[in-house]
Amino acid sequence: MVITTTQFIKDYRDVALRWFADGLENLSPLQQYQTLALVVKGYAARDWARSKAHADKTQQKQVYYFSIEFMPGRLLASNLLNLGLKDVVDAGLAKLGLDSAAVYAAERDPGLGNGGLGRLASAFLDAMASTGMAGNGNGIRYRYGLFEQRFVDGYQVEVPDDWLRDSYPWETRKENRAVIVKFGGHVDLVPGASGHLTAVYQGTDDVLAVPYDTAMIGYRTGTVNTMRLWAAEPTAERAHALAETARAGAITEFLYPDDSDTAGRELRLRQEYFFVSAGLQSILTHFKRTHGDVRLLPNFVAVHINDTHPAMAVLELMRLLLDEEQLAWDQAWQLTVATMSYTNHTLMAEALETWPLGMFQDLLPRLAQLAFEVDRRFRARYLSRFGSVLVNRAAPLQDGQLHMANLAVIGSHAVNGVAKIHSELLKTTVLADLYQIFPDRFSNKTNGITPRRWVQLADVPLATLLDDVIGTKWRHQPQALVALRSHASDPAFLSRLMAAKHENKVRLAALIQATLGLEVPADAMFDVQIKRLHAYKRQLLHVFGILEHYLAIKKGAVRPPRVHVFGAKAAPSYRYAKAVIRLINAVAALVNADPDCAGKLAVAFLPNYGVSLAEAIIPAADVSEQISLAGTEASGTSNMKLMATGALTLATLDGANIEIRDAAGKESMAVFGLTEQEAKALRPQYNARERYERDPVLHRIVDMLTDGSIPNIESEGREIRAELLDYNDTYFVLADFADYLAANRRLDALWGDPVAWAKLATENIAASGRFSADLTVQRYGREIWRVLPEQPV
Ligand code: 26W
Known about the structure:
The protein is α/β, with parallel strands linked by helices.
């Protein structure tokens, strides 16, 4: 797309006048941003329309990525980068005398997700468009995104995220594509003319699903795909009743803020069915318009189920094929399995969704009938070969509950985990029985990240240096970063690399000052842990490391200065997680106010962690804390982002940390802790209190939780101490403590040799191309969605 700065300035003035009927000098930064977004949206419109027409004309197979969460982040900068217009527009904004930083910062970050799963979904949409795939997102347009986190006296306080208050310029309302979604009522199966049983729905409670489409612009490919998010509204005949509007709208009012514990609430079930039914209805309508014969569906449509939240898609497609398309069961089932594929993102038992049959039947009577039939046929087919014990455990219906993971596996032709160790653990733990029955369906697809957002945009100092040293090929092919290896011993390059890192640290230090009023030394080691607050991610172990350093300082120990940076939201109902948040803030208050720690140790807990804050923190990190108990973190993706910007990973052998070690070499990171196997073996005889008794440093630190050394954590300290000593430390914080300290000491020693540190940072950046989401979606595209030609072996 060739747009000159002059042309851009003209377009900008036109749109500003047309939308605000005012001169630029009178526009607020928000209006300046909205104007720019509308100009850019206009620039992408032609490619968007052409991409849709081209896919239809060439009968290209489409991928539909069903996810109850998406975290696209701010789109202005990434859309400009992907269109190749970033420099032109930045020059134009300067010529217009506008403060481009203020314009970019005015954009709201749609937090329509909790964490890893939602962000990965958005990275995949960016990657599919950037690799020329026809890949569309299908999700929910929540009126309120994930809560805004504020700290009051160190407590997490949740504030509604009113992200649509100033409208969202990137979306387009498509009421012409609205569909009806039916809830409740009852269904009679009446024999039709062809002897085929027809489902007749009575007394259903109908809701209108209205789609809002947002362009997903590929990186310099000209491919523009669609993220379709559905909003619930009353049907036309009921729209006049205010109560009705509220009742219907409630379905898409807010995102459930839990990222590990199933709420199990009816509204959540309504949400899951709502976007699945709306999505599949619109896919079938479009398909029939372009291809006609529904028996060809799997040749032209791949539907991906992102964790169990959209797993009802299996039953909903069956409903549409049986009741609307009048297909026979076997044919409908064959088409459904061929069309569906499922990714599991967690081994946490409490996160594996099950729905009480009663609730399911009341809300979705027809789907409940189909669930019974799927379950009956599954048992009938596999009982003789696999026996009742295994089949009973693998079946979707058990003890009055519908097990969504089982349904997703039985109804899909492919099932994958998100990192090697996780995909193996799926086969030996939560999905072991189904793996026995469907071994060929299982594969691994290790997660990835989009280097456009996390390096090209978030880390301009590094990106500029890379261009200068290895050319710009890496921007299109991240694997080309391996060329950096040949510079790993070039002192000139190494000092420029650390200068780039330092520039990012100065910028983050300014943000910490502005947000927390805390001054931190930019030349200290920036030690970062950014992820949801969860016991298995062990932010507590990190805090214990800080307290050990604090006590050492008190004893006069001299170590490299460290600034610990935390970003973490806790699910509002997750008491333990909120206790740890209070503890981190209390330790920060203690350390940051202690003159003995000045310039030696600081703790910055930045509130409201999300995509935009991650972009400010990640490029400034020296150490990446990936310290979950081995066998608990499915993959992790912040580990990949921090690696790509040159942080050294302090890691357990968990999730994708293992593959990061394989890629960059074990000397390029600090590995510690029990392996998954060792942790499993230790579990039966683990005695946390004994560990507490025998390690004096640990004993002192655990006692600090309740002896007043850390002010203002009376109840939280007691709660955390109880989890450790009374509930036997579920996530082995005490077991891994000593090794964690040792690994930190190794990092301290390394920090003393900046050239050696920079060399290892270089190794990590050089190896990070392997974790590009472009490669990940191409593996999905070849091996699961079959939208790309098989790779010649
Ligand atoms: C029902 C509540 C709920 C909501 C979200 C349960 C589980 C989830 C997600 C599956 C949790 C999640 O985000 N998992 C993370 O997914 C990332 C992307 O694959 C992985 O990198 C993380 O390891 C995994 O914890």
